[in-house]
């Protein structure tokens, strides 16, 4: 087992931090929101309204985090995907390459 596979999260955090933190937000945020919503229901007289407010906030934050991850991995506003030529297309060759091109590993 290689060091990169063994330390997958640390490798992901250094090579693609936007995906790492986006997934972290998508996984950790719902748990924190659910705990806070449950606490608000027990403390507040208007617990249902607090729960409703937390849930609506949760959906907005999920959408923002998903958009952030999507934007970070999509060529927008002149940014090119890693490894692809400026045209954005892979040009055909006469035969198979001896080693996979850089874009193969994504």
TrEMBL record:
Q: Does the keyword Transmembrane apply?
A: yes
Start and end residues of each stretch annotated as Disordered? 82-106
UniProt keyword list? Membrane, Transmembrane, Transmembrane helix
Q: What is this protein called?
A: Uncharacterized protein
Query: Which organism is this entry from?
Result: Dunaliella tertiolecta (Green alga)
TM stretches of this protein: 7-31, 37-70
């Amino acid at each position: 087992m290689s060091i990169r596979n063994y330390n997958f999260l640390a490798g992901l955090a250094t090579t693609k931090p936007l995906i790492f933190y986006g997934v972290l937000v998508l996984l950790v945020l719902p748990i924190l929101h659910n705990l806070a919503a449950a606490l608000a229901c027990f403390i507040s007289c208007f617990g249902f309204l607090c729960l409703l407010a937390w849930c609506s906030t949760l959906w907005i934050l999920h959408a923002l985090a998903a958009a952030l991850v999507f934007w970070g991995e999509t060529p927008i506003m002149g940014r090119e995907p890693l490894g692809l030529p400026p045209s954005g297309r892979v040009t055909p060759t006469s035969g198979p390459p001896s080693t996979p091109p850089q874009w193969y590993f994504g």
